[in-house]
Amino acid sequence: MKMSDLAKIAGVSKSTVSRALANSELVTEETRTRIKALAKEHGYRMDARARNFRKRETLTIGVLVPMPSNSQGEPPATNPFVLEMLGALADELEKKGHELLFAKHSNRDPSWLREFVETRSVDGVIILGQNIYHDILNEIALDYPNLVVWGARMPEQNYITVGSDNYLGGKLVAEHLLQQGCKQLTFLGNTTCPESMQRFAGFKDTVETLVPDTELNVIDCRENHNDGGYRLVSEYVQANKPMDGLFAASDLLANRAIQALRSCQIKVPSDVRIVGYDNISSSEFMTPALTSINQNCRIAAQKLVDKVFARINGKQAESELIPTALIIRESTGVN
Amino acid sequence: MKMSDLAKIAGVSKSTVSRALANSELVTEETRTRIKALAKEHGYRMDARARNFRKRETLTIGVLVPMPSNSQGEPPATNPFVLEMLGALADELEKKGHELLFAKHSNRDPSWLREFVETRSVDGVIILGQNIYHDILNEIALDYPNLVVWGARMPEQNYITVGSDNYLGGKLVAEHLLQQGCKQLTFLGNTTCPESMQRFAGFKDTVETLVPDTELNVIDCRENHNDGGYRLVSEYVQANKPMDGLFAASDLLANRAIQALRSCQIKVPSDVRIVGYDNISSSEFMTPALTSINQNCRIAAQKLVDKVFARINGKQAESELIPTALIIRESTGVN
DNA sequence: CACAACCTTGCAACCGATTGCATTGTTGAA
DNA sequence: TTCAACAATGCAATCGGTTGCAAGGTTGTG
């Protein structure tokens, strides 16, 4: 059944039906309700494709998610934070009457984005995890405005970002670990990822300022490690590198680190104090419960969605930081 | 730039351009390559909305994912298996040139599906987790054929499913735990979920057949528990209920159970042997590494996608089981 | 050479909504 | 009573591709 059929039933033109269903003031309140009732009664559903075509929109936002596959194409150790964010984004977009088109980067050529926006398959794009894509994003943003990225603000960037204050996060972690008496600190994270590096910078600067003679090492864990750093951490401690405090750039990494340490008979928090980042919902239930930097998904999703809609409507929008706070739990041995 | 512009540049009609870009045999090899070259040169991209409209398709498959929110709308304890599957589905769909429209159930009215397929926003739908939706799905499937569900085959169902052999899985777990000498078995799972119940049925039947006097209890963990059963398991052991073997209906539950037991000073596997289900990628790296039933996401995604395309093309398709095998690791204390 | 058969291309209708403008009907003021 | 102003509705063009059918051009055969 199409609109003209419904128009026939209602005894009006399809223009009127179109306006009635769109709640236009041009058509009488009475006619409007009558037509809506008829539409419901006869189970009329508007053809979304026709409307999208004519109105030159898709009511869809593309969300690009980092999911590196290893060489065998096996499922990766994906950050649960991504899934939580995805859920939050779906909720926010639904409120705005938009759908969420899911795409993973990894097997997609980076030109995916260009292809995608130029075929007008989506009205805007949200990217989770800028990672190593900063340069490509920066270039694409030059001629595609409806782009918002979850991640770190970078110097001279052409796109807008929403993210926690990574530098502050690193600072908070450093202060806390030092306060707990740690002397030999280690950072576990991906050194090619801007977010991760800003966290490290805040961590390092703070440590060097407060307790200059503190030992500070790095375990560089690139994304392609399917085990989330398990092996790297094991190797690190088996090499007898000293460590009494560990800052992991994500809760996923922190969790794997705890498992690796435990398998080496090292106790958390008594031997090594650990802090994660993301405050994923399961961090509260880990053993020991994980101290972490909170990044509120719901707030983040709201801001990401608001900004992408601002851009779609031709309005200005600025990069923004979301609240960033340390959540102290058992893994750093307080009380 | 639209197709007619490109046609003008090429000095042909837009019909020819359309055919050339669609690789139609009706147009000379030579003209085809020439037009494609021109298209690339001038950066022409076809308007996806126009094509979708005219061809009456969307090149998009809706994927409905279970993500229960608790009453405060906080992010749920989502099964990592879902995310792995989502990634695998994205890969499979990309191979077929389709996009993946993501939707979560929870805040969506169950009529979402109906709304969705009737507005022709997607060409087909894949549902992950049939859970408590069996009846609704069964009704919708009556007049919407392009529907495939990941889950358990049910008596008199109108939709097709792809899933592991849950009964067999439960049986394998029972055999293994009994073989390891367990006498007091517990099942941890959601008793309203068909998959879960089939796993339990296989487990129970096998236990009762092989060692009739084995004690067998159930911890009923509905989805709305945000902690994945952590509290329930803690309470269970604190009530001094005896247990030396636990079958958790998912790896997520198993992981939380291990954490809960550890916090009660109960050792895995020496005090309690544990088996999970799903064989998520992280189960290998848990401490102890988790014995689990393998469900291969890639194979599952392939079958789900194949079947939904079969339905779209009006072909027949049958429900199917994917290979189901026990992966033995440390959590059941072998060697 | 004439004509059939075929290959390549173009014409124009069509998909199902939306929307600018014209038209009809109604109200109120002069 | 007449006509302007306005409210409600209809007409028809339009969005940008796809495709059935017609038309033009070429080749081959009798």
TrEMBL record, chains A, B:
Q: Which keywords label this protein? A: DNA-binding, Transcription, Transcription regulation
In its keyword annotation, does this UniProt entry include Transcription regulation? Answer: yes
SUPFAM superfamilies, sorted: lambda repressor-like DNA-binding domains (SSF47413), Periplasmic binding protein-like I (SSF53822)
The UniProt record lists the keyword Transcription regulation: yes
Alphabetical list of Pfam families matching this protein: LacI, Peripla_BP_3
Top-rank taxon, per record: Bacteria
User: Which PROSITE patterns does this one have?
Assistant: HTH_LACI_1 (PS00356), HTH_LACI_2 (PS50932)
Please list the residue ranges annotated as the HTH lacI-type domain. 1-55
Molecular function (GO) terms listed? Answer: DNA-binding transcription factor activity; transcription cis-regulatory region binding
Q: Which PANTHER family match?
A: ALANINE RACEMASE (PTHR30146:SF120), LACI-RELATED TRANSCRIPTIONAL REPRESSOR (PTHR30146)
What is the protein name stated in its UniProt record?
LacI family DNA-binding transcriptional regulator
Originating species:
Halioxenophilus aromaticivorans
